[in-house]
Every structure is written in structure tokens, then in C-alpha cells.
Amino acid sequence: MTLPKVGLELSACCNPQPTGVSRYAQRLTEALLAESDYSFRALYRASRLKKRKYLSDWFQGPVRGYQGPLVWGRYDLVHGLDAQVPGWNHPRMIATFHDLAPLLITEERVSSTGFIQKKTAQYWETLRRAAHLITVSETTKRDLVRLFNLDSERITAIPLGLEERLLLPDPNRDEILAQKGLTPKKYLFFLGSLANRKNLKRMLAAFARSKAQESLDLVLAGEVSWGAGGLGQWVEELGLKKQVYILDYLPENQLPALYQGAAGFLFATLYEGFGLPILEAMAARTPILVGNQGAAPETAGGFAALCDPYQVESITQGIDQLLTFGETHLTQAQAHAQAFTWIKNANTTLALYEKLLKIPPLGPCLPAGTVDDLG
Fold first, then answer.
1. For the residues of 90-117, what is the DSSP string, one character each?
2. Which of 119, 189, 267, 311 is most exposed, with minimal Cβ within 10 Å?
3. For strand 264-267 and strand 77-80, is the pairing parallel, antiparallel, or unpaired?
């Protein structure tokens, strides 16, 4: 019996500093390789050739670059893991959409005009090629159906997973924190791209007003991105220079220590398609605050303080609320997080592959000639 050949578009993994999407792509792929006998091939855009090693270092199988059309007959199914598929037609093409933030955050500018135009064009192109879509939350599935008038039967919501190591106490926690000048349980923590979309300016203002700032510091970790170039200035204007630590990108092996050492996790962002750090903080038994927009409340499952991310006072109240959560609440939150696994994600994804391989080709989610108009 010939095993199905599946091409996985993993350009997102050609990255020396993996973040949300690239971590999803790698963890899911590793689980797929462990759970299935399919013949998997890793695909990456030729423009990522110089960073190919970050993919080939861990992918256990053939790694192929592509530029322009390929002979799709070499693959029985192709899956683009970052809302993008190769620029060639294939009757069984799947794409994972992580969020639609560039199209949904309209109250204020959180991305450059060029980036928004690029992502919008990418979405339309993917919808004209993919026969089925995966979203990482029910929220993003509803967003896709509403914005693009899609058939909901063509979309499968498959939540992300949690790495088990995040559930285990890090024996090096105190040492790692000391290297960064931090004291266990004496700081609040934020992890993510340091960008406008993450609402850092309002979170800083809310922290400055909160009771928490009387005894706790605030740690912001991530790569500075679009719109947050003034982060240091915001901190100074609020008189928080001695209390706010701005860390760069954190390697994955340091994440458990930072989560476990935090007195609370702040994630009052403007929009999330899932919000993987929410699960990771819950796994560390760290109380959480999330914004009430996008999929963050869905991921938190009722175990986080909620706030209106557009209102500083609401964020302030949420910061003070999360510090009241007791041990029973944290135990329940941790159990909620444990229910999300990469094995479940992989098996649900494999079931979708099998379904699509058994039925006649469906054609793209959007017919050719559909006008690029979001109304």
C-alpha cells in the first residue's frame, strides 16, 4: 500500500527565533510525524533558503524549497501552516489561519499600511487556492465566515497544544531570574511581540495606576515590533523606569522560569486568534488577565480576569483582580490548560487529512474571480 504524500508548507519555521506561528508549525509537525505513517515533506519558499537550516535541523524527512509552480502530482495533499499555500493549484490544499488581526483591529492603527495590504492580498490568494481551512479557535472560524462569506463546513477549528515541560517546575528558575535581575513572585509578566497590537501603552498606564505597582515590577519580553519604538519613552513618562524590565526575545528554554516566577501574567491585548501564552501561564499556575476581544476569553475558558483592552481603568481593575485568585482557582486553570495537547491537535488534523483524501476534490473555498471586497 502506497502511503499518502503530504507536503507541509513550513516557511514560518525558517526562523532563528521561533514565536507563536513558528512554534505551532514545529510542534504540530513533530506530533504528526510521531502519530502518522504518512510520507511528509517539508516545503519552504526559496526566499528563505539562507535560513533553511532552522527547519532542516529538526524536521525528520526531506526538505524542499520551491519558487513558482511545482508538479502537484508529487503530493496527495498540501497543508500551509501559516495562512499561505504555494502559488500553484492543487485539488487538496489546506491552510491554517491563526488570526485576522490586520482586518479586525480598526479602532486604531496597529500595523503599517503596507503590511495590512500584503496580508489582505495573501488571505484572498489563499482562499482562492485552498479547499479547506483550519483555524486555531472557534472565534477565528466565525471571523472568516463573516468577513469572507465562507461556508462554515469548509473550516475546521483545531485548538493549539501545550508543551508538557511547562507543567514541570524549572529547577533553574531562581538562577535564570537572578541573571535578569528578577526576584520570584515580585513581578508581573508579559510575553509577546512588543507591538501596538499588544496594547503595551495602555497596559503600562494601567500598571502605573494599580495597587500592584506598589510592590511588584513589570517584565515585558519580546522583540520590539511595529509601533512600539517609543516603549522606553512611555516607561519614563509614567515614572516607571525603575520598575519596568524590557527584555529581548526569550529562548524557549527560559520560558518556564519566567512564567513560574511571575506573580501574574498580563495579556490585555487588542486581539488574539488563540493566545498560546494564556495556556502557558495557566500551566505554570500563574494568575492571568486577558482582554475581552478576539479568542483570548475562549482560550482562557473562564479562568482569567477579563478587561476591556481599550479602557485603561478596566485593565487596572483586572490587574488588581488577578492578584486575588487563590490556589483552587489556579489548580482548576492548570487542569484546563492540560486538556490542550499537541497530540490531540495532530490527531484531529490527521482525521481531516484522511477525510479529504477519501472524497472527490472540493475546489477552492472562494471561486475564481471573486472580488476582493470586504465591504
1. -SSEEEEE---HHHH--SS--S-HHHHH
2. 311
3. unpaired
pLDDT digits (tens, 9 = 90+) for 219-241: 999 987 755 667 888 899 999 99
Full-model pTM: 0.92
Which candidate, 313, 330, 166, places its Cα nearest to that of 252?
166
**What is the rounded distance in angstroms from the CA atom of residue 348 to the CA atom of residue 177?**
38
Q: Which amino acid belongs to residue 231? A: L
Report the interhelical angle of 276-283 vs 327-338 (nearest 10°): 130
- All residues at 6 or more sequence positions from 226 whose CB lies less than 8 Å from its CB, including other chains: 110, 111, 112, 115, 195, 196
For every residue of 151-212, DSSP letters joined together read: -GGGEEE------GGGGS--TTHHHHHHHTT--TTSEEEEES-BSGGGTHHHHHHHHHHSGG
H/E run at residue 146: helix 138-148
Torsion of CA 310, 314, 315, 317, to 10 degrees: 180
Q: How many C-beta atoms lie closer than 10 Å to residue 352's C-beta?
A: 17
Under a CB-based contact definition with an 8 Å cutoff, are residues 161 and 155 in contact?
no
- 10 Å Cβ neighbour count for 197? 22
Cell of 280: 502557558
Per-residue pLDDT for 94 more than 70?
yes
Q: In whole angstroms, give the CA distance from residue 122 to residue 103.
A: 12
Cell of 272: 488574539
> Which single residue is written with the C-alpha cell 533553574?
172
Dihedral sign, CA of 250, 254, 259, 261? Answer: negative
Answer for the pair 194, 222: CB distance below 8 angstroms, yes or no: yes
Domains (ranges, CATH) in the chain? 5-161+342-358 (3.40.50.2000), 164-338 (3.40.50.2000)
Residue 39 in grid coordinates: 510520507
Cα-based distances in Å from 267 to 49, 63, 67, 155, 250? 34, 36, 38, 27, 17
How far is Cα 88 from Cα 13, in angstroms, rounded to an integer? 21
Distance between CA 66 and CA 43 in Å, rounded?
A: 7
In this predicted model, what pLDDT tens digit does every residue of 30-61 receive, in sequence order? 999 999 999 999 999 888 999 999 999 999 89
